[in-house]
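Predict fold of Phosphoglycerate dehydrogenase; 431 aa.
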Amino acid sequence: MTSAAPSQKLSKRASASVLKALRPFNSGEIKVLLLEGVNPTGIKVLTSAGYQVESHAKALAPDVLKEKIKDVHVVGLRSKTQLTAEILAEAKNLLTIGCFCIGTNQVDLEYAASHGISVFNSPFSNSRSVAELVIAEIIALSRQIGDRSNELHKGQWNKTSTNCHEIRGKTLGIVGYGHIGSQLSVLADSMGMKVLLYDTLQLMPLGTAHPVGSLEELLGASDFVTLHVPETDETKNMISDRELELMRKGSYLINASRGSVVDIAALAKKLQNGHLAGAAVDVYPAEPFANGPGFETPLIGCPNTILTPHIGGSTEEAQSSIGIEVATALTRYLNNGTTLAAVNFPECDIRTPTADQKTVRILNCHHNVPGVLKQVNKILSEFNIEKQICDSRGGIAYLIADIVLESDADLRKVYDSISAIPENIRTRLLY
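Predicted 3D structure, encoded as tokens:
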């Protein structure tokens, strides 16, 4: 990959008496493409940084995206846009990607990393929104609110208490005890539910939550089962006919994680034959590219089944927080080279810029093989290195170094020499 060239305006440096802020040589040259209605808070952060920001309310068709992505430095997206290797191959200037959501499975992370493209997301900001939705669904399922509402909309009065229950004293089984699962655990605990949890990691339970040793044990002991796991090969169809049969007769299933986690046809069968008393599903194996009619699923018409269009994190509060969190991470990376919280890059940071106006920050991404750092340090050893940090993640290594350079000729020499290293992926310069 061709490395990003330094600006021609290298000699225009402020007085040494002023504390220097690190940034791209010309922030106005940074082009940002935002898709799928990124919250205005994120747009404000990026425009305030001086970047050129183009924002779209919806996802773009692949052929349109391929054309749009050719000359941009930043892409921001949510869950519908698929940044495959084929599409990323068109992005010759792309430096970083912001996923304004929890998941990153819509991005080919390995391809991005191997081409020096960092990826950031928001793993925390919508946790509360999803947890609250699940609590609402637990209550709604337990009281059959969805069915009663539909009946009344059709003019049918059906006041009944049959198979309607309080949630106090019932057992909630949480599969996946991460940010969402743990928050849900606290909310359910405070409402008088008994909470069981299952996770592949050994995690500290909150409140009175009790860990169990297997998924099977949790399924057989829970009145409500809720899923909060990532999309991986291991979680694909982790809840299928066998697992549904292990669930208590008359229990409920809630999925607000990923659509591939549940075998939808098997779930519909268990709802129709009465083995399960209800379900709430917010995510699906295949979701529409845009809003509108035509969505189909075997769950349509199933009794006491709440279907929502992937709205778990769709609250004003969550989207506002996500906009700030991801846009700030992108700005820090562009302006300072900071990779803290990147999902596909080593996490490196040098927090304090130097006051010396002759100092330049070198950012280098290279293949993680023996001898590369030795080559880089040999180049840098001719100059005063004020600060330096390097780390690796899988096959990628990332280095930040602040060095004192006396002239633009020195700057060009350092840049060209590091860029010429065979294992180099991308080199950037900040001042």
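The longest helix spans residues 316-336.
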